[in-house]
Automatic annotation (TrEMBL), chain A:
InterPro entries: AUX/IAA_dom, AUX_IAA, PB1-like. GO terms for cellular component: nucleus. This is Auxin-responsive protein. Residues 213-227 have a biased composition (Low complexity). It is found in: Nucleus. Homodimers and heterodimers. Aux/IAA proteins are short-lived transcriptional factors that function as repressors of early auxin response genes at low auxin concentrations.
From TrEMBL, chain B:
It comes from Actinidia rufa. GO terms for cellular component: nucleus; SCF ubiquitin ligase complex. This is Auxin signaling F-box 3. PANTHER family: F-BOX/TPR REPEAT PROTEIN POF3, PROTEIN AUXIN SIGNALING F-BOX 3. Its main location: nucleus. GO terms for biological process: auxin-activated signaling pathway; pollen maturation; SCF-dependent proteasomal ubiquitin-dependent protein catabolic process. Residues 4-45 form the F-box domain. Gene3D superfamilies: 1.20.1280.50, Ribonuclease Inhibitor. Keywords: Auxin signaling pathway, Developmental protein, Nucleus, Ubl conjugation pathway. CDD domains: F-box_AtTIR1-like. One of its GO terms (molecular function) is auxin binding. It is found in: Nucleus.
Length: 397, 573
């Protein structure tokens, strides 16, 4: 059980489960000896030839090799597909050789106790496996100790415990075999190591599918390994090429009013970073407001749309202020002249013509919008205070 | 019926249009076979290597219209190397030599050369109609030959072909006397066209019913064409970008309003959303709308447009319409029969996509829906079960979850039950494409219930040979089976070898089938062509190692044995 232990040492997550796992894995008798031998930190001593191909990966890989030693390998049906290896990334090939290290399913040779499935088991080229791009993820897949593997529920002797692995960022081994949901959901398809993996239980009884965890994070995860699999998704190459060309053209229009997009920066007081939105995605203020609300989660223009006459999109400033009394923030924009204006005064089309950037201000600041001098005075005052401090300081020096 | 005069039979057979019906009657007896073969004018050949041109002409001497399909379907997704085959030249050559009075040629996934087009244009005096779908290998020079020489050309329809554009003057090659054009579609051409020549051609083609322009045709030209062709039924715009305040745009609006016959609208290869309102007046009459190439239109604008299209029967759209937009489709387009939702973002970033919600909404609102192609981010069993209940009339159901092995995100189950519900409920299902996490169970369902299934596409699915066996045993009408990246091996392949002669073809790539298994099959079934595509010389080194897995195998029944035009990397066993 090297991996879990590495995980323990690395991040301390899933400690209990790991311990449980190892305890219950007592049946892995022959592993016991190797387990004692394991020396995670010293895994550099790994002598297996496999390690060379994965030397680029951190010691976790070496832990994988330990797995090999612990014979947790379960005969992966058809796992020998060397001809697939050249198609994949460097790591893939390395991983491929290691494949036997990864227990997947109850093996044919009866080492059922360790039906742990590191997700990357597979007798055939799994989807993630075919993604050449996960060479980038190679580190992530086997790094940092934590990873997931699943103990097949179909095996009555084996516990249902799951050891959870954590990966840097969103890397994750195929979580398809997770029986227990965990906080850090690895993404299945994107960062799966090259194991010709089937992201799911390959148990012939197929029961373990019940425990399969989806990589439902895929949408939220940064698409690290976005290499396209040949043949997937099944979109005609003509269509792919045409759309690719058109979207490239659209992307070039940035911040300029054009048929395609109109991206402007959106900043918010107190937020550590800015966002960018495409104003052409919306056609009314309400849509913009709800989008920003979702983005920043604390801004609201509220029901301004319902206050206007049907069909009218203009909001009077006073109405906006009324609405905003309950709200902490105000949406403002910098127009072509460099002035900061309150959003909502002018018709939508006019607004997107002149808007250069957006800012979500605290309403307390916004009240002072009309009175720029006040703000300037306030700023000056701050500067003066700072200067005084500095001068005091220099005096003391 | 020995005494039944053949003239009467012939007259009766005239009413048989479908080639299936004609195939059936020709099996009744020898005299029916003879009468039928002399009266058949339209021939469909689903696999150009199943038969050769000579035998075709021998059997059907009165041939006037030929439809040929070449490469396997997965060639669309780059799984078939470029020069695999599917050449049409031998067919054109044979027909020319034997004096066939060819009037119509329809090709799909074939390699067409300029020489072939030239020969075609010169050899058949009455040639009227050329339809090329997903073909390649020719340039605009070949089109120039067609334009110049086919005096009675009615239809030139180029759909999604890879054409090398020499930016020549092929449009100008239509002689001034050519007034017969009924349908012209050059939307797939990438290059510039001579706009003046186009306008002149349109002006003299008073029979024009269908016109699809490429992106190089600006709105201004479109406006001029429409002004002279208000009788159009099917329009594909080129570029649809203009300043809404301009005179050009105003003229376009006027012209469009006069086009009361337009039932089908497509194109928008380049579009400014602010120009879309120009087409609102004709949306009421639309039965077909294809916006699947119209990038840059936001969901809200699509929704505004859809609200006008109450009579829509066929809709092809990008997934930026969103689930909400599909809800609007469901409430507006009650006559909808076919829906295709394509992914706008091919890199799967996840935003602006559709989910199972959109599909459920559609199924609830559009009971006539029978054909679906749906790319989505996720799908649930519950949704599929609901869809199956709402729409039992599906004949084509193709679901593509972008991430192909994810389970139901709600229950974490595979999608077996969902697809099982679909095949159980849709008794007329003829075509099915699977995706998502799937075990052998789904194949069990398919084998049990999908009695009318003719084509099945499988990727990353199944656990064992049992899956494939269920399908081969259960689907009696199966014609085409294509499988990628699934764990089916020799056992599945070899258990029922006779089955493949009842099918058109079988494709298996990245499965567990070995060279030895394929060799065994080829030996047992001499009337099958078992082709191995050996890219990258993977098996060159050890051609006798029967245990090595075969990366790509394509087998098909054939009456003429191994093809002689196979490239080096294709081994026919």
């Amino acid at each position: 059980m090297s991996p879990p232990l590495i995980g323990v040492e690395g991040e301390g997550r899933g400690n209990v489960s790991i311990v449980t796992a190892s305890a219950s894995m007592g049946c892995v008798s022959q592993n016991g000896s190797e387990l004692k031998e394991r020396n995670y930190l010293g895994l550099s001593a790994c002598s297996s030839g496999d390690s060379s191909s994965v030397s680029s990966v951190s010691e976790d890989n070496k832990s994988n090799l330990n797995l090999k030693a612990t014979e947790l390998r379960l005969g992966l049906p058809g796992s020998q597909s060397p001809e697939r290896v050249p198609e994949h990334s460097q790591l893939s090939s390395g991983k491929f050789e290691e494949k036997p290290l990864f227990p997947l399913l109850p093996s044919n040779d009866g080492i059922n106790a360790s039906s742990q499935k590191t997700v990357v088991s597979g007798n055939k080229r799994g989807f993630s496996d075919t993604m050449g791009g996960f060479s980038e993820m190679k580190g992530s897949a086997y790094n940092e100790g934590k990873w997931m593997f699943h103990i097949a529920g179909s095996e009555s002797e084996t516990p249902q415990s799951v050891v959870q692995g954590k990966f840097p960022g969103n890397a994750g081994i195929n979580a398809g075999l997770m029986s227990r949901p965990s906080g850090s959901q690895p993404n299945i398809m994107k960062e799966v190591p090259s194991k010709p993996s089937q992201e799911r239980s390959r148990a012939s009884n197929g029961n373990s599918h019940n425990e399969i965890k989806a990589s439902n994070n895929s949408s939220s995860a940064p698409p690290a390994a976005k290499a396209q699999v040949v043949g997937w998704p099944p979109i005609r190459s003509f269509r792919k090429n045409t759309l690719a060309t058109t979207s490239k053209n659209n992307d070039e229009v940035d911040g300029k009013p054009g048929p395609g997009t109109l991206f402007v920066k959106v900043s918010m007081d107190g937020a550590p970073y800015l966002r960018k939105i495409d104003l052409r995605m919306y056609s009314v203020y309400q849509e913009l407001s709800s989008a920003l609300e979702k983005m920043f989660s604390c801004f609201t223009i509220g029901q301004c749309g319902s206050h206007g006459a049907p069909g009218k999109e203009t909001l009077s400033e006073s109405k906006l202020r009324d609405i905003l009394h309950g709200s902490e923030y105000v949406l403002t924009y910098e127009d072509k002249d460099g002035d900061w204006m309150l959003v909502g005064d002018v018709p939508w089309e006019m607004f997107i013509e002149s808007c250069k950037r957006l800012k979500i201000m605290k309403s307390s600041d916004a009240i002072g919008l009309d009175d720029e001098c006040l703000e300037l005075v306030w700023r000056d005052w701050l500067r003066i205070l700072t200067f005084q401090n500095q001068s005091n300081y220099s005096v003391s020096l | 019926m020995n005494y039944f005069p053949e003239e009467v039979l012939e007259h009766v057979f005239d009413f048989l249009k479908s080639h299936r019906d004609r195939n059936a009657v020709s099996l009744v007896c020898k005299s029916w076979y003879r009468v039928e073969r002399f009266s058949r004018e339209r021939v469909f050949i689903g696999n150009c290597y199943a038969i050769n041109p000579d035998r075709l002409i021998e059997r059907f001497p009165r041939l006037r219209s030929l439809t040929l399909k070449g490469k396997p379907h997965f060639a669309d997704f780059n799984l078939v190397p470029h020069d695999w085959g599917g050449f049409v030249y031998p067919w054109i050559d044979a027909m020319a030599k034997r004096g066939v009075n060819l009037e119509e040629l329809r090709l799909k996934r074939m390699v067409v050369s300029d020489e072939g087009l030239e020969l075609l244009s010169r050899s058949f005096v009455n040639f009227k109609s050329l339809i090329l779908v997903s073909c390649e290998g020719f340039t605009t020079d070949g089109l120039a030959a067609i334009a110049s020489n086919c005096r009675f050309l009615r239809e030139l329809d180029l759909q999604e072909n890879e054409v090398e554009d020499h930016r020549g003057q092929w449009l100008s090659c239509f002689p001034d006397s050519c007034t017969s054009l009924v349908s012209l579609n050059f939307a797939c051409l990438k290059g510039e066209v001579n706009l003046a020549a186009l306008e002149r051609l349109m002006a003299r083609s008073c029979n024009l019913r269908s016109l699809k322009l490429n992106h190089a045709v600006p709105l201004d030209t479109l406006q001029k064409i429409l002004a002279q062709a208000p009788q159009l039924v099917d329009l594909g715009t080129g570029s649809f970008v203009s300043d809404p305040d301009s005179e050009t745009f105003r003229r376009l609006r006027t012209a469009i309003q006069k086009c009361a016959s337009i039932k089908s609208l497509s194109g928008f290869l380049e579009v400014a959303p602010c120009c879309l309102p120009a087409i609102y007046p004709i949306c009421l009459n639309l039965t077909t709308l294809n916006l699947s190439y119209a990038q840059g239109i936001h969901g809200s604008e699509l929704i505004k447009l859809i609200r006008h299209c109450g009579k829509l029967q066929r809709l092809w759209i990008l997934d930026c319409i969103g689930d909400k937009g599909l809800g609007v489709v469901a409430s507006t387009c009650k006559e909808l029969q076919e829906l295709r939702v394509f992914p706008s973002d091919l890199h799967g970033d996840g935003h602006a996509a559709v989910t199972e919600e959109g599909l459920v909404a559609i199924s609830a609102g559009c009971p006539k829906l029978h054909s679906l192609l749906y790319f989505c981010q996720q799908m649930t069993n519950a949704a599929l079960i609901t869809v199956a209940k709402n729409c039992p009339n599906f004949t084509r159901f193709r679901l593509c979850i972008i991430n192909p092995t994810i389970p139901d995100p709600v229950t974490m189950q595979p999608l077996d039950e969902g697809f099982g519900a679909i095949v159980q409920s849709c008794k007329g299902l003829r075509r099915l494409s699977l995706s998502g996490l799937l075990t052998d169970q789904v194949f069990l369902y398919i084998g049990m219930y999908a009695e009318q299934l003719e084509m099945l596409s499988v990727a990353f699915a199944g656990d064992s040979d049992k899956g494939m066996l269920c399908v081969l045993n259960g689907c009696k009408k199966l014609k085409k089976l294509e499988i990628m990246d699934s764990p089916f091996g020799n056992l599945a392949l070899l258990t029922d070898v006779g089955k493949y002669e009842t099918m058109r073809s079988l494709w298996m790539s990245s499965c567990e089938v070995t060279l030895g298994g394929c060799k065994t099959l080829a030996k047992k079934m001499p009337r099958l062509n078992v082709e191995i595509i050996n890219e990258g010389d993977q098996m060159e080194a050890t051609p006798d190692d029967d245990r090595q897995k075969v990366e790509k195998m394509y087998l098909y029944r054939s009456l003429v044995g191994a093809r002689r035009d196979a490239p080096d990397f294709v081994w026919t066993l």
